[in-house]
Design brief:
single chain, 6 helices
């Protein structure tokens, strides 16, 4: 049996860039108070399932879990699941494997919850 080797930084590069850009954006918002308006909300007037993410992360950056929860309760609760789905997907892709039934059920359930939340929060 071959020994497992941790993924190289090359594989992690897109995620590191994404996190760095996110941190720079949060610092920009904290310093200037200027943030990007949700394009979906700007066009339709309705809240998308992701509306409140900037506030959620701003609150988390100062350990304000109450404020983070109220900014977007569904994403606050589902964040660990979404993180797990992303990591698991990367592992499947690295090993050139198909997603298993459990992964697919969790991913589909997560999508259904997010879509339902997007509808319910606008009623």
């Amino acid at each position: 049996m071959a020994a497992w080797h941790p993924p190289s930084l090359k594989i992690l590069k897109p995620y590191i860039k994404f996190i760095l850009i996110g941190c720079l954006y949060l610092m920009w918002v904290k310093i200037t108070g200027i943030s990007i308006e949700c394009p979906f909300h700007a066009i339709t007037g309705y809240y998308c399932p992701g509306c409140g993410v900037t506030t959620l992360f701003l609150c988390l950056s100062v350990f304000d879990f109450y404020g983070a929860f109220h900014a977007n309760p569904v994403l606050f609760v589902l964040s660990p699941v979404i993180f797990w789905l992303i990591v698991k997907d990367k592992i499947y892709r690295l090993n050139k494997q198909q997603h298993n039934k459990t992964y697919n059920k969790i991913a589909l359930t997560t999508i259904i919850i997010l879509v339902a939340y997007g509808i319910i929060r606008n009623i």
